[in-house]
From TrEMBL:
Phylogenetic classification of the source organism: Bacteria, Pseudomonadati, Bacteroidota, Flavobacteriia, Flavobacteriales
Domain of life, source organism: Bacteria
Protein name: Uncharacterized protein
Organism: Flavobacterium pectinovorum
């Protein structure tokens, strides 16, 4: 199933940064009423056995982990890379938000992403 229609620009309406050391949550709108939430989960692998809501390094769409190196992953990253910002995001903050987003995209596309996925058991 294709969540993202490459012909329609997405708008990042809101951005949340978690206090866990790097999780970034994007609230995304496409068209007038289709909303998505994309989460770039922090990539630090903690040594404690404390339960985590999300595995480190995960890319999550609407509460579900996106399969590593899948077509959906490529579509999401491609769309987010060229997304516009909604009116509620301050103009003065957009450059730093763009840098943060691009850093997360580069990580997901990197070999380090695979390394973290192996460490946390997402892939073998």
């Amino acid at each position: 199933m294709c969540y993202f229609d490459m012909k329609k620009q997405i708008i990042i309406e809101n951005i949340g940064v978690s206090m866990d050391g790097g999780t970034l949550v994007l609230k995304i709108r496409k068209e007038e009423s289709i909303f998505y939430e994309v989460e770039f989960v922090q990539k630090v692998v903690f040594s404690s056995r404390a339960p985590m809501d999300r595995l480190p390094g995960s890319l999550v769409l609407n509460e579900k982990e996106v399969e590593i190196r899948s077509e959906l992953e490529r579509e999401i990253l491609s769309e987010i890379r060229i997304a516009e910002f909604g009116m509620q995001l301050e103009e003065s903050e957009r450059d730093s938000f763009k840098r943060m987003i691009l850093e997360r995209i580069e990580f997901v596309e990197s070999e380090d992403y695979i390394t973290v996925a192996r460490k946390v058991g997402r892939i073998k």
